Amino acid sequence: MKPYLQVEDLTKSYGDRMLFDSVTFGINEGDKIGLIAKNGTGKSTLLRILSGEEAPDSGSVTFRNGLRVGFLAQIPDFAPGKSILDNLLAAMPEEHHEDWNREDRVRQMLSQLGISDCGIMPEHMSGGQIKRAALAQVFLASPDLLILDEPTNHLDLETVEWLENYLTRQRITLLMVTHDRYFLDRVCNKIIEIDMQQIFTYEGNFDLYLKRRAERIEALTGELAKVRNTLRKEQEWMRRQPQARAGKARYRINAFYDLKERSRANYTERQIDPTDVRSSYIGSKIFEAEGISKRFGEKVILDDFTYTFARYEKLGIVGGNGVGKSTFVKMLQGLVAPDSGEWNVGETVRFGYYSQEGLQLPPNKKVIDAITDLTDDIVLDNGATRLSPMQFLNRFLFTPADQQKYISTLSGGEMRRLNLAAVLVRQPNFLILDEPTNDLDIMTLGILEEYLREFKGCVIVISHDRFFLDSIVDHLFVMEGNGVIKDFPGNYSDYREYLREQKANEEQKAAQKCEAQTKSRSRENSRPAKMSFKERKEFEELTAEIDRLTAERHELETVFNSGEQLSDIEEKARRYSELKDLLDEKEMRWLELSEKA
């Protein structure tokens, strides 16, 4: 394996906060590495050092001579006033090919990433479009080593899966930071973790990393217990031996203080601890949507949408960018008015809304003041526990010093935690989470998932994080655009498997029809061109039967898409499957006979 990059004794701190101390690691050709760490412990800083955007305090970063490195920043930057096509052409390395060939490559890559309008200006693009264009720019440079900082943020699920397949297929060396656990598991062959200011390297994918890390933490926890046990014995010796603090016992005194420092280690995984923050009581009536329609100009968001939401339901909403997912949940809360229809919300429902934009907390306020403004007394466990705002914020990893920070100075991860605290402090019983996983580290995501699974209320989640959806939801609203919403009974992985099966069935049917047509044409020379009387009668009967079966299938599809609670859903589903098979059979025979018509 060719060494591409070697990091030696790298150290970086901000003031008195050490991120990593004398860390050493290497990247070899073919490595596909996921970089994992808790928020605020140096993931993005390390990437910026490797890309040359930031200098370390000490240590060295050595690249192989002539190595081409591509870097994707969390917030890509394009020149305004120039089309995205011109931006990407300007960034491409010089080639021996003609200009038209370079432009053709750019257009092809943008098209693969879902950008058809190459003349669009960056200032008119959404966050998702900017991220996709930035990925295209990095790929077109044909780097030997790719460094990606949160490549899946702001991407819809379809693009995330395209990117996952692209990076899996390509013979490329990769170092990336991402919180998408399926992405890590399927793309990476090595995991590097920053923990306790050190680097730990694990061979294998994310799933194997979790097992190896658990073993490491268990070993460290056992060692810590031994250290603390030894410390207790040494403390007794220190108390008994005041005269022995000189001469021969000096080494033992030094060892005592070293033990004391080591005993302060904390290997807990909990970055936040909202588990005691229970929901308030929620009644049996949640909400009913009756004939909701909404459009913006020619763009249809909802079209006569009707649905009854059940108690304790956990729903995921998926769909491409711009289909109206955020508008849907805003309409439910009365933040956006429908064009027609009405939402009938139960009296006990208390919404908690965690939006992409956050709560717009005043930047000139301190963290503690933002929570105190919402409430100065937090009652938990039906009155069994009372917390002050300061105690409540401690559960979300805000130390007393952090609570005195101004909101304008918080990092992305800190803002996410503060917004989550501000939502949960009111003890909602209906949580609406719009892209909650951005800027949260993997450890925090695990705790949030645990909380939501046990949450005694209703949950609606909009997310591009497939692992997060699979962990929480029991069914999906698939927003297909143009007002079409399909209710799928299962999680996201179930839905993708369903789509794969549908595609395979369609391809098989297309192949069978093609084969039937080929056979029919080959029989033309050996059989009379015209139908017999018996075949003519069969053809007419088939035409009428196909019309009848098609009408019955459409009736069932209308019922399925209505959102009504059906007592005989299994029977209707079986009949729907029978109809599809019957229609395939009848249509195949109809095609054969139609060749003679």
UniProtKB/TrEMBL annotation:
One of its GO terms (molecular function) is tRNA binding. Residues 506-534 are annotated as: Disordered. Keywords: ATP-binding, Cytoplasm, Hydrolase, Nucleotide-binding, Protein biosynthesis, Repeat, RNA-binding, rRNA-binding, Translation regulation, tRNA-binding. Residues 5-221, 287-506 form the ABC transporter domain. InterPro entries: AAA+_ATPase (IPR003593), ABC_tran_C (IPR032524), ABC_tran_Xtn (IPR032781), ABC_transporter-like_ATP-bd (IPR003439), ABC_transporter-like_CS (IPR017871), ABCF_ATPase (IPR051309), P-loop_NTPase (IPR027417), Val-tRNA_synth_C_sf (IPR037118). It holds the Pfam family ABC_tran_Xtn. GO terms for biological process: regulation of translation; translation. PANTHER family: ABC TRANSPORTER ATP-BINDING SUBUNIT, ABC TRANSPORTER DOMAIN-CONTAINING PROTEIN. Belongs to the ABC transporter superfamily. ABCF family. Translational throttle EttA subfamily. This is ABC transporter ATP-binding protein. It comes from Duncaniella muris.
